[in-house]
Design brief:
The chain is α/β, with parallel strands linked by helices.
Length: 401
């Protein structure tokens, strides 16, 4: 069985340019299925050739590995990307041998001679990681590694559902206002990737594993504008957790010959990123980290990520930014139950920093309670809740007393 990726001619829809492909998949029970994957861009953007399938292949790589299906691309693919994807597959097959298998990729044409344009584009939704990357690169704070950011991009269809057009417009307007302070433009992009992904039946790992592939695939289509994309790190080098959808180990392997991927910011913890962001007033003013709140264009102020970000500022001795609605943080912390272990590690770092800065003991007690609180399923079946000895060691290390 195989997955066939067939590029279609780009078209115009809703006053936007649309790149699209059809993904044809054979299933033992369902038979042949055809699903369309599309991306919409402003009309002034110069798009890659219709035949260029780099983005489509990146989007479908983990899907093919999950279903152990070879891939036939009826178009052109970068020779550099094909080489990188061999190693990219090796990583995921080692991380999750029971979920992902290495598969063959064949394409109608391999592009061997490719030219990468200068400049970079940065994904920007207003969160801590992206804001930190944009700020430090725009201010040339990375020495020889500093990227010349030409533009930023925000994607509708990732954290904000496609049917919530008002929320996306508000979030994009706020991001534009922030970036105007640095004289950086913002490209608004729309894609049906998440609804497409749900049809591929990846199970509970879907978005958590594929989000970086989805992001790079989207930004890859801006390569007529800039030859590099900068993606913000989720964890610092000394706190890396594997497996994870984005990491300095795997992200660069999504690079093609004409579009490179730079994993940025792992040199800093989230606390250190927040500390540097306080130098950028506009960046802090419009910070948007929330994805759980009912209103997708702003911070709810009460979810785990909102509370943790507030505590990042407090632990570093700063006031809570006005982008977070006022709430009783002590009460909010009593409701938080952490599931992913990398998040528990973040809380432990907050605790250590807050303790060092002699934050109110009541807050320290509640932060400690959040770290030590476990979901019911983990308390009932502790040996079965995490994979392997690595996660057991991490659980032991993450407890504080």
């Amino acid at each position: 069985m195989s997955i066939i990726i067939e590029p279609l001619s780009h078209t115009t829809r809703n006053d936007a340019l649309e790149r699209r492909c059809v993904v044809i998949k054979d299933g033992k029970k369902t038979g042949q299925q055809r699903h369309e994957l599309w991306y919409q861009f402003p009309q002034e953007i110069t798009l890659p050739d219709d035949d260029d399938c780099d983005a489509y292949l990146i989007s479908n790589m983990l899907i093919a590995m999950k279903h152990n299906q070879s891939v036939h691309v009826k178009g052109s693919v970068s020779g550099t990307l094909l080489s990188n994807l061999v190693e990219y597959q090796s990583i995921w097959a080692r991380w999750y041998p029971k979920i992902y298998s290495q598969v063959d990729v064949v394409c109608d044409h391999i592009r061997e001679t490719e030219k990468k344009l200068p400049g970079a584009v940065c994904a920007f939704s207003g969160g801590v990681d992206a804001s930190f990357s944009v700020w430090r690169h725009s201010q040339d704070k990375c020495s020889y590694r500093s990227q010349d950011i030409k533009s930023c991009a925000i994607v509708h269809g990732f954290d904000i559902p496609l049917d919530d057009e008002r929320a996306f417009a508000n979030a994009a307007d706020a991001a534009e206002q922030t970036l105007r302070d640095l004289d950086l433009p913002l490209v608004r992009i729309k894609t049906n990737y998440r609804s497409f992904l749900r049809l591929q039946k990846l199970g509970g790992f879907g978005w958590r594993h594929t989000f970086l592939c989805a992001l790079v695939a989207t930004l890859n289509q801006l390569k007529s504008y800039a030859g590099t994309c900068v993606v913000g790190s989720a964890q610092p080098y000394d706190q890396l957790v594997f497996p994870h959808g984005s990491s300095p180990v795997s992200d660069h392997l999504l690079s093609s010959g004409d579009f490179g991927v730079v994993h940025d910011g792992a040199s800093h913890s989230r606390l250190e990123k927040v500390e540097e962001l306080t130098e950028w007033e506009a960046g802090v003013k419009n910070l948007r980290v929330c994805w759980e709140g009912e209103l997708k264009d702003r911070n709810c102020g009460r979810c785990e990520k909102c509370v943790r970000t507030k505590l990042n500022f407090i632990a570093k001795g700063h006031e809570i930014p006005g982008c977070f609605p006022a709430s009783d943080i002590l009460e909010d912390m009593r409701k938080i139950v952490i599931k992913p272990e990398p998040i528990r590690t973040e809380w432990r770092m907050v605790y250590e920093q807050a303790k060092a800065n002699k934050v109110n003991p009541k807050w320290l007690r509640q932060i400690r309670a959040v770290i030590n609180r476990r979901p019911l399923a983990e308390r009932l079946l502790p040996e079965e809740s995490f994979r392997g000895k690595f996660f057991k060691r991490l659980m032991k290390k993450s407890r504080v007393s």
